[in-house]
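Title: Prediction job returns without error message
Component: structure pipeline
Severity: low
Priority: P3
Assignee: unassigned

Description:
Job completed but the reporter wants confirmation the result is attached to the right record. Sequence as submitted:
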Amino acid sequence: MSVITAAPLISALPDGVVLTDPATVENYRYDWSSDPDAGVPLAVVRPTTADQVQTVVGWCGENRVPIVPRGAGTSLSGGSSAVDGGIVLSMERMRAIEIDTTTRVAVVEPGAFNAEVKAAAAKHGLWYPPDPSSFEICSIGGNIATNAGGLCCVKYGVTTDYVLGLDVVLADGSLITLGGKRIKDVAGLSLLKLFVGSEGTLGIITRAILRLVPAQPPKATLVASFPDPESAARAVVQLGLVARPSMVELMDRASINIAEDFRSMGLDRDAGALLVVQSDAPGAACSAEIALVEQACSDQGAIECFSTDDPEEGEMFAEARRSFFPAMEGLGAKMFEDVGVPVPQLPALLAGIEEIARVRQLLIPVVAHAGDGNTHPTIVFDPADADARDRAGLAFTEIMELAISLGGTITGEHGIGRLKKELLPHQLGARVTELNREVKQLFDPAGILNPGAIL
């Protein structure tokens, strides 16, 4: 039996596209989830054109070599963990961005960072709204693969709401174009939306057409402190009945102190929870909306409310929230959760997570895109302590089971990847899980595209 090597790919592609040096390959094995089961790939391929992607996928299909697409490696669910003997297809060198001001779209290659698209749009007075906390270092391809959300999605929606078109290389090496610069298009089945959130299991995205909107107006910010996360969550439920803010973020006491230890921004370390709420309503409506939010917070027991219409001062509070994930570095091993529930169930979810942390004797700080019910509990444990590792694994499953029991989801925006797939059938049910597998089989009959992810 012949041994598969990367030599044919090295010959077929320009110098520097295929990397096989073990030290270099090691850098592409893991994403931010640090999946302990990540494999050792045959090679890392960094294409610069769609034609090169087709060459790679065609060769992999002929030789039954698995392909793991990779953006910036910021996945928190093991979605871009390498597999043994496979190809890591890194899109990092496909970075082109073109802004079409007449149709208000950005034509973007998958390796471009979210922040780069925002900056390019801003030069023309336009805005790309989806804004994951890692927007400065995460790629558009990865955002599309996971249907990423972010801080302003409570008002402006998630990635899928801004994807108008895609070029995708299928498992047989063919390139298809879906959608375009049209805002309205219902011709045929919505295959375009099928690829958004598919985590590289159905095809490889090589180009995206993204809808842009006029630049966001100046924002006012309210910061409210509460005695506990449940009262803050009840305020979120109430304010959602009377206002439509552009950001509603929650931090519990543990996450506040972790962020303050990382970079002091004057957050109230004694608060049981903080809400950071922003309004970008035009003119006087902005102050009126903030007043409605403040009333809701006061009604639900807020200890203190502070508001500002200075955009720079308000952005400092948003930055404090964004700093949570980098602040977690050095605290120990981590399991990242991404569970969401209907907003009225948010108090019950937060109370349940707090109880799981108590029973399992673990630190589980929580930040949340509270306005849309999406929470990010992070389980922290000592990897050298086998008992702590086991307790963390139990808590990881229990938090997802809790979300499902409340009518929620095991992932709001990070994706299933390899770390959550065992719980997916519990949320979807047997028949829907089977339909997912049938779709995967249709697009990738040999199972070479990101095997082990999602299903």
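Comment from assignee: result matches the submitted record. The longest strand covers residues 204-211.
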